[in-house]
């Protein structure tokens, strides 16, 4: 019997939908850079670790490959990621077929075409309409949407061959309860994130992240076939740095200061600000590795910093940086504070960023993205 935990509904915080100026579709070049940079690594992973024969025969349907992109949002990045994966699997398939034909008199080996089924997953409130209106018309796969939190179960047992998740696992299933409790040592009064907060706040976030990652890994272990692969692109903070040393951490702190300023002016209540925290956490490589190793169902085949040569070009000016953050956080902020303060909030944020030399200096973009390749163990 499945545990209740597997079907709990996590807090929903999708990216801005539609095609407007603040939409994720128009403001996700930064995330796209990671997908582009990971293409060769994904191909290497599949060529080296994807067992076509064993994997195809281990699922319920022969000669069909099932893959999922978790946290797909509204496109177009998810389509690029899927295309990269499918091209790599097809290349592996052709290499295997050629090898068998070279070493066998049976020329019928691998002659049956493979069907690809792709599952696009995100929260229930994700703009799936925009996603599916944007599906590539020349795609060579069947497409389906799977709404729900990836922190729990989404698919039947042993039904997936490949899982991809990019720029999503830094989102928590919920804000740690301690940081919003005025009686707790971890109460995060006057801040909306753990950047520059006390150690109790940081620990509360870290503990929540570990719990969520373990839940994610447990669910995927049940859904992946033995030998199935999972590629994770996870925003992180280098082991030697603090969150306040990175733009990811500092921009959240700056946004929080704008809300505090607005509370002082009576534009929003102080209580409303104190009851809001962002459900996001950026782990360090060593922290993430330790969490993955606690789940014995996966082996870490590769884990390293993603080399993204276009990183400094994806947010070249002030407006793009503000729009990028607004596309990601506006839905969450609007749900808590209301739509009427959004323009004021991001105008203030824009002015503070403009007054700072920190954000637009490429040398200060010290956040990293980790490329993590996991393989489902037989156990």
TrEMBL record:
One of its GO terms (biological process) is methylation. InterPro entries: MeTrfase_7, MeTrfase_capping, SAM-dependent_MTases_sf. The keyword Transferase applies. Residues 1-11 have a biased composition (Basic and acidic residues). It holds the Pfam family Methyltransf_7. The keyword Magnesium applies. This is SAM dependent carboxyl methyltransferase. It comes from Trema orientale.
